[in-house]
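Researcher: Let's do a round of design. I'm pasting the structure tokens now; please hold your answer until I've finished.
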């Protein structure tokens, strides 16, 4: 379900319904997967994804942030689109971690733990989980009010920079907190801006004008297919006489060259 100002309240209601389940999943992640707690939250996510054979490729599709793909070795591998702005990549890190790990948690809880297979609800859980990992129980509401700027987009840009979170994620979190604090004025302010989106160039100009880190709203364009290349190279070492493995490696390396070539053209 695409979130707009018209279904924003419904989204917040869904968040309330799944809150306890997502909170339990966060506890599961923190106990079992997060190793480097002094790392920034996006780096913690990156380290988890690396252990799941992360693939990074720049795909020129701004509607596609990432996915989980099952490879022939039965491993579920996360794929991140590095043509997206970095703040969106960071959000997708946690979104895909939810999908990677929900089945692991289900095994631990057996039949007593309900994880819905409804697509929209599962996606909402993944998004809410990502938002909770980025914002925590934190102070976005207070931080927003501490910013002494009149322009709404300028205040949101500072929030995006400080929490390393994408525009819509900031607005949804802010709206949820405004509703909790019964602040009707902020709710209306968020709703009136929710369906508006600045161009990439406008965001860059705004970030630069206020001395914010504009790399956060730019793509990284990383190409990393090592999760595929590594296992193939191991097979070649063990079965040097099997041409199929060498051919597979050539195909993957051609993909890698193609992504880098397309990037250089642009």
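Researcher: That's everything. Go ahead.
Model: Designed sequence:
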């Amino acid at each position: 379900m695409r979130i707009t100002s018209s279904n924003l309240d419904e989204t917040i209601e869904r968040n309330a319904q799944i809150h306890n389940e997502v909170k339990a999943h966060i506890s599961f992640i923190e106990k079992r997967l997060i190793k480097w707690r002094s790392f920034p939250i996006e780096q913690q996510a990156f380290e988890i994804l690396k252990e799941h054979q992360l693939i990074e490729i720049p795909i020129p599709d701004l509607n596609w942030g990432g996915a989980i793909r099952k490879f022939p070795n039965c491993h579920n591998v996360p794929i991140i689109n590095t043509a997206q702005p970095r703040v969106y990549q960071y959000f997708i890190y946690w979104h895909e971690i939810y999908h990677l790990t929900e089945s692991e948690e289900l095994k631990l809880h057996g039949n007593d733990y309900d994880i819905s297979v409804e697509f929209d609800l599962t996606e909402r859980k993944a998004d809410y989980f990502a938002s909770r990992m980025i914002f925590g129980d934190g102070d976005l509401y207070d931080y927003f009010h501490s910013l002494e700027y009149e322009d709404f987009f300028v205040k949101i840009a500072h929030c995006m920079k400080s929490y390393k979170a994408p525009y819509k994620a900031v607005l949804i979190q802010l709206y949820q907190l405004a509703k909790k604090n019964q602040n009707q004025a902020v709710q209306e302010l968020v709703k009136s801006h929710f369906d508006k989106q600045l161009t990439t160039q406008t965001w860059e100009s705004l970030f630069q004008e206020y001395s914010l880190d504009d790399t956060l709203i730019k793509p990284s364009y990383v190409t990393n297919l090592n999760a595929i290349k590594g296992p193939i190279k191991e097979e070649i070492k063990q079965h040097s006489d099997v041409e199929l493995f060498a051919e597979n490696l050539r195909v993957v390396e051609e993909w890698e060259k193609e992504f880098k070539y397309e990037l250089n053209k642009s």
